[in-house]
């Protein structure tokens, strides 16, 4: 075996961001047969994402995609979003008696494949992420203390390098393309590479990498008789982790604080000042954040029946719920007590019980519900209103209580029970408000203006009675910002 020299892997050293985790191959580049690239966020590691239950779609869009609007950086460029989960993972590693495994943060199957790849001296495998080197390299140093990221016999780090985005304003894909191209050119010096594999969770990146590898192969074929290697892009189901509500709110507040501070100090008057607020409260019976398989199957059948609608239009966003009052209105303690006690006259007039009823129905912070708050309904019909210019949401489900919920006091007439929620259609939030208001004042008008499609053997919808409000934001001119005030209204 030819002796390996340190400068043989200058390219790997150049792109590596964490010196303590650099693990150079024991063989020279001319003997390397495989190059494996692991995307980090939501592929290899369950990186935190904004919680769709907590934050409005508009706030999530701002946090994830508005790099230019938030001068402090978006969610993916904010240190604390990843640091919180690293802290949690470290705590689990330090407490081996914990019932929760640190593997909840990692893709266990990919780690097993990385372990096997590391045992092959002719394989180079790296972690490649679009996170910025300057912001995150010290945080990634902590990976050296994770025992499950080390070889079970040699105790060496199972990846050859961890590559963050260095001194570059390129987008993530272009940067990764640059790094991979450089590595292939430096490793394939004797047409020795047989295989290039990329693991990636984002669908559009999967397609881009497939096109990129094809292009790279064609480029190689111009320099030699043919490209020696074949490229594979492996789509990976995204894996993510949700932060605690309080932690996530604190992070978003800090992101807004930093943005506002930069705007004021640099007199960036063309950029808005951001402030958090809570949306209007909604009360009713809430369906879970994840749709049941039967629910999705119903919508797919509906799409097949009505060809002109796209499936993404039909699927509702969270929260889906059966409203029992107009959004923005707060239910009285007496009504809450009636629903929770099933109309028991002995306790409806108990003021303490009524007051506690309101506290007991806070949602979504306490996910473990008393059985008194759980109600079961069944979908009997669907009304599609995508082309409606009126005040009806794009899609409405008619429901009835079933099972143990049949006969319970639910605060509304049975014929006035509808499951609603926002879709991607424009103005659905406003339509939902007017639908609930009209339902409360002129229910017959609602019934007359809707065309129903009956659903045979409709899915069961398990709900929780409660009130719900989402975190949202407002933006104002910079001079209206009061730094001494809290960011949450």
From TrEMBL:
**Which InterPro entries does the record match to this protein?**
SAK_HAD, YMR265C_C
Cellular component GO terms, alphabetically? box C/D methylation guide snoRNP complex; small-subunit processome
Pfam families tied to this protein: HAD_SAK_1, YMR265C_C
User: Which BP terms from GO are recorded?
Assistant: box C/D sno(s)RNA 3'-end processing
Q: Where is the YMR265C-like C-terminal domain?
A: 276-471
GO terms, molecular function: histone H2AQ104 methyltransferase activity; RNA binding; rRNA methyltransferase activity
Where in this chain does the record put each Swiss Army Knife RNA repair protein HAD domain?
A: 47-261
Q: Which PANTHER family match?
A: AER281CP, RRNA 2-O-METHYLTRANSFERASE FIBRILLARIN
Would you tell me the protein name for this molecule?
Answer: Uncharacterized protein
State the organism named in the record.
Henningerozyma blattae (strain ATCC 34711 / CBS 6284 / DSM 70876 / NBRC 10599 / NRRL Y-10934 / UCD 77-7) (Yeast)
């Amino acid at each position: 075996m030819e002796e390996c020299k340190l400068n043989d892997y200058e390219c790997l050293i150049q792109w590596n961001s964490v010196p303590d985790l650099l693990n150079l191959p024991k063989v020279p580049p001319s003997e390397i047969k495989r190059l494996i690239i692991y995307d980090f966020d939501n592929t290899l590691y369950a990186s935190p994402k904004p919680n769709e239950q907590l934050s409005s779609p508009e706030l999530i869009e701002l946090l994830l995609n508005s790099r230019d609007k938030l001068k402090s950086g978006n969610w993916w460029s904010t240190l604390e979003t990843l640091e919180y989960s690293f802290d949690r993972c470290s705590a689990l590693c330090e407490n081996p008696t914990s019932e929760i495994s640190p593997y909840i943060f990692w893709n266990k199957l990919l780690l097993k494949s990385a372990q096997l790849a590391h045992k092959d001296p002719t394989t180079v495998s790296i972690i490649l992420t679009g996170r910025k080197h300057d912001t995150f390299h010290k945080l990634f140093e902590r990976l050296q203390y994770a025992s499950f990221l080390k070889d079970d016999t040699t105790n060496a780090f199972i990846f050859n390098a961890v590559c963050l985005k260095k001194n570059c304003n390129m987008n993530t894909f272009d940067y990764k393309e640059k790094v991979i191209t450089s590595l292939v050119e430096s490793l394939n010096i004797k047409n020795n590479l047989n295989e290039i594999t990329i693991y990636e969770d984002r669908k559009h990146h999967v397609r881009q990498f497939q096109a990129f590898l094809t292009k790279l192969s064609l480029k190689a074929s111009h320099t030699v008789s043919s490209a020696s290697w074949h490229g594979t892009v492996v789509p990976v189901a995204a894996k993510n982790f949700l932060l605690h509500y309080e932690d996530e709110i604190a992070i978003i507040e800090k992101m807004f604080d930093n943005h506002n501070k930069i705007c004021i100090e640099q007199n960036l008057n063309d950029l808005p000042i951001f402030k958090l607020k809570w949306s209007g409260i909604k009360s009713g019976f809430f369906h879970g954040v994840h749709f049941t398989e039967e629910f999705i199957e119903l919508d797919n059948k509906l799409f097949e029946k009505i060809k002109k609608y796209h499936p993404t239009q039909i699927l509702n966003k969270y929260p889906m719920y059966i409203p029992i009052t107009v959004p923005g209105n707060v239910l009285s303690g007496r009504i809450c007590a009636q629903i929770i006690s099933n109309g028991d006259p002995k306790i409806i007039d108990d003021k303490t019980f009524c007051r506690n009823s309101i506290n007991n129905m806070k949602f979504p912070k306490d996910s473990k519900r008393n059985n008194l708050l759980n109600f079961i309904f069944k979908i009997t019909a669907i009304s599609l209103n995508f082309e409606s210019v009126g005040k009806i949401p794009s899609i409405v489900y008619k429901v009835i209580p079933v099972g143990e919920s049949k006969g319970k006091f639910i605060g509304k007439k049975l014929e006035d029970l509808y499951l609603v929620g926002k879709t991607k259609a424009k103005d659905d939030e406003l339509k939902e408000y007017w639908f609930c208001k009209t339902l409360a004042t002129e229910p017959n008008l609602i019934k007359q203006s809707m065309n129903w499609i009956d659903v045979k053997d409709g899915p069961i919808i398990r709900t929780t009675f409660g009130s719900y409000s989402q975190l949202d934001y407002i933006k104002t001119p910079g001079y209206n910002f009061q730094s001494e005030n809290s960011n949450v209204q």
